[in-house]
Specification:
The chain has 427 residues and is an alpha/beta fold. The chain contains 15 helices and 16 strands. The protein has helices at residues 3-20, 25-41, 43-55, 63-67, 71-86, 125-136, 150-166, 181-188, 203-212, 235-247, 269-273, 287-293, 327-337, 350-359, 420-426, and strands spanning 94-99, 105-112, 115-120, 140-144, 174-176, 196-200, 225-229, 256-262, 282-285, 302-304, 318-324, 342-346, 364-367, 386-388, 396-398, 404-411. A seven-stranded parallel beta sheet has the order 10-9-11-8-7-12-13, with helices on both faces. Strand 9, helix 12 (287-293) and strand 10 (302-304) form a beta-alpha-beta unit. The protein is globular, with a radius of gyration of 25 Å.
């Protein structure tokens, strides 16, 4: 696809976005429910195309689980789309209003972004999530998926377009771009055609998008998450939280990558890590932690930590362990290595929990709760478009409200603004 062709695609997407403003909320919800129905009807087709992608990937690749679709995951995706249809429209909300002394009324209302570009890796579910949220929020979406999921993404967009065409809606409302680096570069620099870029994937992908984009970017995805087992932590809670946060799904961004433990509780480290052995989790332990685990954690799964063990998003059955003297040292360690995604403290000390909540700089800060809950669905938002780790515009799980902008509507009755300097000049 050459530059001219890409420009035509983006112009068509912008026109489709403009037409979306004419759809009422009931019609939007009807289309979303129809997409959910069609997704279930096309499950066999989508799974067959997904199997082609899976066959080309090594099962040991951490991305394999993210790439894989199953009947259960298809059913869950359809359910998520239906949930989005039940959510209140994020558009036309009055965010603020005032009437000025001269009678002029100013109203701040939520509006669509317009055209949102998404660049993502081997995550075909993102194609459904992005479409449903963008469509509900009145924006067209331009998708640039990874080559690993090419067949899956094509099948998904075909399914969505069946429904759009049936309802007489421009199929350019959702566009899947070809797998070409040149196309990525064009999307990142499509100023005037694309209003926002959201990358979803590895730290490398996110860094590349941020460093090369001229279109505004919201950073999402990369999660280097810590669990801090405080000196006043409950061992039973700690075991459950660390095990769930690490092993529920290792390939997702809210998985725990590092366990930080107070030296005063080193004697409990073996018990804390014991459940991890059931899933063959490799533990990279610093010197004090290694000594505490030696002979108490499977030898083949116990490694000595090095400089690369901390600040790494493993996306695998691996975890690092850092022993600290106190909370000051724990907070400093987390501050140094965190990606500002999700962090948790395990403690029964309310003052320690309060300090942790105030000082830790992350989108989601937990007390005695697994980081696995950092998810738009778990927060009650329906499907999510990603987890923002930055501070401008949106932070944390991004759903409908976070993918809208706003404008000011000003109403009056012939008011004009006096300008003394102009009047003097005219005199």
């Amino acid at each position: 696809m050459d530059n001219c062709s890409i420009e035509k695609v983006l112009i068509a997407a912008r026109e489709a976005a403009r037409q979306l403003n004419l759809l009422d909320e009931n019609k939007i919800n009807e289309v979303l429910n129809a997409v959910a129905d069609q997704t279930e009807a096309d499950a066999g087709y989508i799974l067959a195309e997904n199997a082609r992608d899976l066959a080309a990937m090594d099962k040991s690749n951490p991305k394999y689980d993210r790439l894989m679709l199953t009947e259960k995951r298809i059913a869950d995706i359809a359910s998520d789309i239906r949930k989005v249809a039940t959510l209140p429209s994020p558009l036309g909300r009055i965010l603020w209003e005032t009437t000025r002394p001269n009678g002029m009324k100013i109203t701040k209302v939520s509006v669509p972004f317009g055209v949102i570009g998404i660049i993502y890796e081997a995550r075909p579910n993102v194609s459904f999530d992005v479409f449903s949220l963008c469509f509900k929020a009145g924006s067209a979406c331009v998708l640039k998926g990874g080559s690993d999921a090419e067949n899956s993404n094509k099948a998904i967009i075909n399914t969505i377009n069946k429904v759009l065409i049936k309802f007489g809606i421009d199929s350019n409302t959702v566009v899947l771009l070809p797998n070409d680096r040149h196309v990525t570069a064009e999307l990142l620099t499509a100023v005037g055609f694309v209003d926002l870029i959201i990358p979803r994937g590895s730290k490398g992908l996110i860094d590349f998008v941020r460093d090369n984009a001229k279109v505004p970017v919201i950073e999402t995805g990369a999660g280097i998450c810590h669990a801090y087992f405080h000196s006043a932590g409950d061992l039973c809670k700690g075991r459950r939280i660390v095990f769930n946060g690490k092993t529920r799904r290792v390939s997702v961004c809210n998985a725990i990558d590092s366990l930080v433990i107070d030296r005063a509780r080193l004697s409990d480290l073996a018990a804390l890590c014991e459940p991890l052995a059931e899933k063959n989790v490799i533990v990279y332990a610093d010197e004090p932690s290694y000594d505490a685990l030696l002979g108490k954690y499977p030898e083949q799964l116990l490694m000595r930590a090095d400089a690369s063990s901390f600040g790494t998003e493993f996306l695998d059955y691996k975890i690092s362990v850092k022993c600290v003297e106190n909370m000051d040292e724990a907070l400093a360690h987390i501050s140094r290595y965190s990606s500002k995604h999700s962090e948790v403290i395990i403690t029964e000390d309310a003052s320690a929990a309060e300090r942790f909540s105030k000082e830790v700089d992350a989108a989601c800060v937990y007390t005695n709760v697994s980081t696995a809950f950092t998810d738009g669905g778990q927060f009650g938002f329906g499907a999510e478009i990603g987890i923002s780790t930055q501070k401008l515009h949106a932070r944390g799980p991004m759903a409908l409200n976070e993918i809208t902008s706003y404008k000011y509507l000003i109403h009056g009755d012939g008011q004009t603004r006096d300008d003394n300097s102009v009047q003097k000049c005219c005199l």
